[in-house]
Amino acid sequence: MDAITRSAELELEIQANPGRFRVLTGDRPTGPLHLGHLFGTLQNRVRMQDLGVDLFVIVADYQVLTDRDVADRLAETVEGLVLDYLAVGIDPERATVFTHSAVPALNQLLLPFLSLVTVPELQRNPTVKDEIAHSRQASVSGLMFTYPVHQAADILFCKGNLVPAGLDQLPHVEITRLVARRFTERYGPVFPEPDALLSAAPVLLGTDGTKMSKGRNNAITLGASDDETARLLKGARTDAERHITYDPANRPEVSSLVLLAALCQDRDPVDVAAEIGNGGAAALKRTVTEAVNEFLAPMRARRAAYAADLTYVRKIIQVGNERANAIADQTLAEVRQAMGTVY
Ligand code: ATP
Ligand code: MG
Q1: If you placed Cys at 105, which of 75, 304, 306, 332 could pair as Cys (CB 3.0 to 4.6 Å)?
Q2: Ligand 1 center from residue 168 Cα (angstroms)
């Protein structure tokens, strides 16, 4: 079954029984969150939370070092991520927001998990290959190579069984499933086999027509000003054809802009494109800019309000880390029991 069909099936299960699910998902603190995150995963996180699903949001601070030597201004970037979470509606009263570097027992799971996958399985992972291609390092570090196994520890430490994520994360979730399955075969049932949950925008493209990404200078961030948003969208790549249509396979850049407006306005992209029609790229960009700025306005206002006092943001991380540690210690105790390493 493909991931999109599976996601639709999961939606029904979640509606019927939200208590059966625990969400684990998160982001690398490599920069501010953008529209790709919002439509690819953040909205699903908030929706799950509001349906009553237990939500864990991980700030994957060790994984910043997969593709660069030093993590610059990490504390500031981490606080920025939490502001983005608050802005989109993640509620720290109901959700656990934590940084994985502060959870030793989570990281210790990496050792047994590494023994459950082969080097060729890691080498074949298309997302690792893609991230290596975009890496700022001359050669691949061991941390980059083992990234998906670390992610298995991130998901499984809290027995997460639902991972709202973008398309690029599917190969990683597959490795998590493999680790969970093999752990069960060798040592007995401790971990669930998690499912990825895709959104209607599993890969949102950036202004250059490739995956919108923090590292590629092609992103519209949630916290950007209206003017900055207008400037970035003005510079977005389109194509030579004047008539605007929604045709993602043949016109990825134009269609991505149409989709962006449609997502912001909760409309069908085909209708958005038809309305612009012969208005061409200039009209398309005007429509998208207005739609994005209008849609983000309340989130931007909330973000600015929370940014005024970072004590609250820091408290959220502290409380989240305490909760994550308690759960990770418990899981590691079960792993020790299952592996026969209790002496
Ligand atoms: P970086 O370039 O630093 O890797 P990123 O923008 O790829 O940053 P991540 O922190 O790696 O962001 O991704 C966090 C989550 O957001 C993942 O679930 C990922 O699938 C999702 N995501 C990121 N970019 C997009 C996008 N353009 N479209 C849909 N989902 C996305
Ligand atoms: Mg990424």
Answers
A1: 332
A2: 8
